[in-house]
Amino acid sequence: RSVYDDQPNAHQRFMEKLDACIRNHDREIEKMCNFHHQGFVDAITELLKVRADAEKLKVQVTDTNRRLQDAGKEVIAQTEEIIRCRVQQRNITTVVEKLQLCLPVLEMYSKLKEQMNVKRYYSALKTMEQLENLYLPRVSQYRFCQIMIENLPKLREEIKEISMSDLKDFLESIRKHSDRIGETAMKQAQQQKTFSTALQKQNNVNYGRNMHFGRSRILESRNEMTLKRTLEEDDEHEEEILTAQDLVDFSPVYRCLHIYSVLGDGEIFENYYRKQRRKQARLVLQPQSSMHETVEGYRRYFSQIVGFFVVEDHILHVTQGLVTRTYTDELWNMALSKIIAVLRTHSSYCSDPDLVLELKNLIVIFADTLQGYGFPVNRLFDLLFEIRDQYNETLLKKWSGLFRDIFEVDNYSPIPVANEEEYKIVTSKFPFQDPELDKQSFPKKLPMSQSVPQIYIQVKEFIYASLKFSESLHRSSTEIDDMLRKSTNLLLTRTLSSCLQNLIKKPHIGLTELVQIIINTTHLEQACKYLEDFISNITNISQVTVHTARLYGLSTFKDARHAAEGEIYTKLNQKIDEFIQIADYDWTMSESDGRASGYLMDLINFLRSTFQVFTHLPGKVAQTACMSACQHLSTSLMQMLLDSELKQISMGAIQQFNLDVIQCELFASSEPVPGFQGDTLQLAFIDLRQSDVSPFQMTFLTCLCHLLVCLFFSRMRDSSKKNNIFAQFRKNDRDKQKLIETVVKQLRSLVNGMSQHT
Length: 758
What we know:
By secondary structure, the chain is mainly α. Among the domains are: 12-95; 148-198 and 245-375; 391-413 and 449-568, Tetracycline Repressor, domain 2 (Orthogonal Bundle), CATH 1.10.357.30; 591-696, Methane Monooxygenase Hydroxylase, Chain G, domain 1 (Up-down Bundle), CATH 1.20.58. It is built from 24 helices and two strands. It has a two-stranded antiparallel ribbon with strand order 1-2. It is elongated, with a radius of gyration of 61 Å. The model is unreliable at 204-239, 690-701, 703-707 and 720-729 (pLDDT under 50).
C-alpha cells in the first residue's frame, strides 16, 4: 500500500527491496541443487550395472516359453476337441428343449393360418389371443417368435379390414333391398289393416249404409266379398310372407360386431355403423325431383324409408348396444322432419286431386307400418291435415272447372218434362217439390234449368270426394262431419259463388239468362237443407248437435241473386241507352208527326216483352227492375232535352217530344209489372211533368227557360273570351261577374213566376 502512497521516493525503495528478495531466493535454489546432485549421479551408475543382467534373463525366458509351447500343442488340440463335443451335446439338449416349447406355438400359428384361409375370423382372433397370452411369452426370445408377434397385429388389421369389407357389402345390400323390405312391410301392414277393416264392417252392417247413403246393399255385399277374398289370400300367401331376415343376410353385421368387440374396438365399430347408416338415411330421405309426378315415385320413396327403419328395428332387437332406442328415436325424428319437409314441398306441386288422394293413402299406410314398429307418427297425421287443405284446394279447382262447363252448356231455359218418367228422373237427381206444378198435366216445365240438378249432383260428388280423404285418419265422426261441412262451405261460398259471379258478368249473358240464373239460385238455396241431411247421413251425426256447422249456401246464393239483379238493372239501362242513342229529334221541325217516335215505340215494346219474362222472378225484383228502367228512361229524356249543345227548339219539336212523354206515361199506367200501388210507376216521369201544369205548357216553359239561360251564358262566354276574363280579375271584371249572377237570379225568378201563373 505504501507503494501507492504519495510519499516521496516510495516506488524506488519498493523496487530496491524487491531486487534484494530475488537475490535471496536465487541463493537458496543454488544451495538445493548442490545438495542433491551427488545422489543423482549414483543412481545412474547403478542402472548401468543392472542392464547386462536384464538382457540375459530375457533370453532365458524366451527360450523356456518356446519349449513349453512346443510341448503343449497336442494337449491343446485334444482339449479343444473335448470342449467342442461338449458344446455340441449341450446345444442339442437345448435345441430339443426349445423345440418342445416352440412346437405348440407353431401348431397354433398353423391353425391360425388355416382359420384365416377358411374365413373363420372370430376363431382366428381367439387363437391369436391364446398365442399372445399363453404360447408366445415362453419363446419370445426367438426371432421367429418376434416375427409372429409382429405379424399378429397385421393379421388383426387384416381381419378388421375383411370384416369391414363384409360390413360395407352388407350396407350396400340393405341399401339396395331397402325398398323391397319396405314394400313387403307396407304390404303386410295394409293386409292386416284390410283384414281388420273387413271384420269391423262385417260386424257392423250399418257402417256401409252410414258411409254411403243410398248404396248400402251394394256395399254390404262388397264388404262380405272383401272379407272372404282377404281371408283366402291370407291362407294362400301365409307361407309366402317375407321378412327382413328373408331378404337380407345379417350375418356380416353380427360377425363384424363380434370381431370388433373381441379386438376392443366395439365403440369404434358402433360409431362407424351409425355414421354410415346416417349417411344412408340422408340418401334415402333425398327424393327424386320428379317424385311428385307419379304415385310410384311416392311409393318408392316411402318403401325405402320403411325398409331402412325396419332394418334398424331388427338390428336394435337382435344386437346388444350396436344401436339403441335413443339412437333410433333420434334418427327417426331427424328423418321425420325431413320427410314432412319433402312432402310439404312436393305435395304443393300436385294439382291432381286423385294423386293427392293416393299420396294420402300412401302416407297412412306408411304411418301405420312404422307405428307397428314402435315409431311415433303423430306428426304425419298432423301433416295429413295440411295436405287435406291442399286436397280441398285441388278439389275446388277441379270442381270450378266442372261448374264452368255446366254453366257453359246450359241453355238457361226451364226443364221440359214430357211424362212421369222424365219427371222422376229429374226429381231423383234434385230434391224438387212444387204441389202446384204437380197438379198440372204433362207435358210441363220445371222452373229451373238443366244446370241446377247437375250442380246439385256435383256438390254431392264433391262431398264424397272430400270424404275419401277423411277416411283412415283416425278421427271421430264428429270431426269428419265438421271437415265435410267446412269443405262444402268452401265449395259453395268460394268456388260456386265465384263461378256464378263470373257467369253473371259475362257479356253474352242476356236478361233472359240472368232471370233464369236468379230462379236457379233460388232452387239451389232451397236444396241446401237436403245437402245438410246428406252429410248427416254419411257421418251419422245429427244436425241438432251443438258443434255441428251449418252450410253457408244461403248467403252464397243470395249474393249471386243480388249480383244478377244488379246486372239486370245495368243491362236494362244499357239497352235503354242504346235506344236513346238512335233517337233523332229535329228540334227545328214546324209541326209534329202526330204519333210517338219510332225509337220510343220500339223501346216500349222491348220493355213489355222483357217484363213478361220477369213473371217468374220474385215480385220485388221485377218491380225494382221496372221502376229502375222507367226512372232511367225519364232521366235520359230529360238529359236529351237539357243538352248543352241544343241552341234552339221549335214548337213542333216540343209537340213531338210531348207525344213521346205521353207514350211513356201510358206505358207506366199500363202496369207492365203487377204489384205497384196507385201511380207509383208514373211518378218516375214526374221530372217531365208537374201535377198542375199541362204537358205542353210544362214542356214549353222548361224549353223557354233552358233557351234563355243557354243564350245568356253563350253571350257571356263570347264576351269573356274577348276580355280574357279568367286571365286577371280587375275591379270592372268583378262588377261584370256580379251583374251576370244578378241576371241569372232574375231569369230563374221569372221562370218560377211564369210557372206559378200558369
